[in-house]
Amino acid sequence: IAGITQAPTSQILAAGRRMTLRCTQDMRHNAMYWYRQDLGLGLRLIHYSNTAGTTGKGEVPDGYSVSRANTDDFPLTLASAVPSQTSVYFCASSDGSGGEAFFGQGTRLTVV
Amino acid sequence: LAKTTQPISMDSYEGQEVNITCSHNNIATNDYITWYQQFPSQGPRFIIQGYKTKVTNEVASLFIPADRKSSTLSLPRVSLSDTAVYYCLVGGWGHSSASKIIFGSGTRLSIRP
After folding, report:
1. Residues of B with CB below 8 A from A94's CB?
2. pLDDT tens string A66-105
3. What is the per-residue pLDDT for B31?
4. Under an 8 A CB cutoff, do B94 and A104 touch?
5. pLDDT tens series, chain B, 113 aa
6. Between residues 77 and 106 of chain A, which touch chain B (CB distance below 8 Å)?
7. What is the DSSP letter of B5?
């Protein structure tokens, strides 16, 4: 049982470069989310999608974009990375019923 | 916007019962209360969810008073492995209010031998 998979696990990225973080779930969940977690702090919502074909902005959407072409995949793109985007990124999914959300193991991104 | 307030940190000892209280004064009528646990270098993991009164599962209990403006997560007989950060969330996953689900700073629970 895979659940929710993120890739890469970690990445060092030069400032100004474009980067896409991948997230795939095999639970057929309608809703998916991207969070970032800075060192020692809580999670902040970047973007979300309640169903395939729709996306919405969270607390900290600037500098990030997402797409939801199908149910399983929810990639997060940094068009031009900056050092302040150094963080751990978590993808999550839920069935949309208001119950449990499942989180991936995270992608540790360092922008230098 | 239903923001939550929790203690920043708590300490306890193995075998004790730990209660972590969360305030959510602006909770909406259709909001659930959900608690997550996070270990270092891992994603958050669901512990328990409730709407009102008391909910119990194999790992914890959740107490919610009638006004729903607060909730208390109760961990019975904690062990060293319960050392983690605990987050209280208010909202409805996947609903139109998904963007309003806010993770606070959480409560850093440290269990000592």
Report:
1. 93-94
2. 999 999 999 999 999 999 999 999 999 988 776 788 999 9
3. 85
4. no
5. 568 899 999 999 999 999 999 999 988 888 889 999 999 889 999 999 999 989 999 999 999 999 999 999 999 999 999 999 999 998 865 555 554 566 778 999 999 99
6. 90, 92, 94-106
7. B
Rounded to a whole number of angstroms, the distance from the CA of B89 to the nearest CA of chain A is 11
Strand partners, A11: A109
Closest residue in chain A to residue B35, using alpha carbons only: A100
By C-alpha distance, which of A26, A36, A8, A34 is closest to A92? A34
Higher-confidence residue: A41 or A91?
Answer: A91
Listed in sequence order, the residues at least 6 apart from B100 whose beta carbon sits closer than 8 Å to its beta carbon are: B1, B2, B91
Q: A67: exposed, middle or buried (C-beta count within 10 Å: 0-12, 13-18, 19+)? A: middle
CB-CB under 8 Å, B96 with A50: yes
Look-up of token digits 């909001």: B31
Taking CA atoms, what residue in A is nearest to B90? A98
Minimum distance, in Å, between the CA of residue B55 and any CA atom of chain A: 14
Q: Would strands B107-112 and B9-13 be described as parallel, antiparallel, or unpaired?
A: parallel
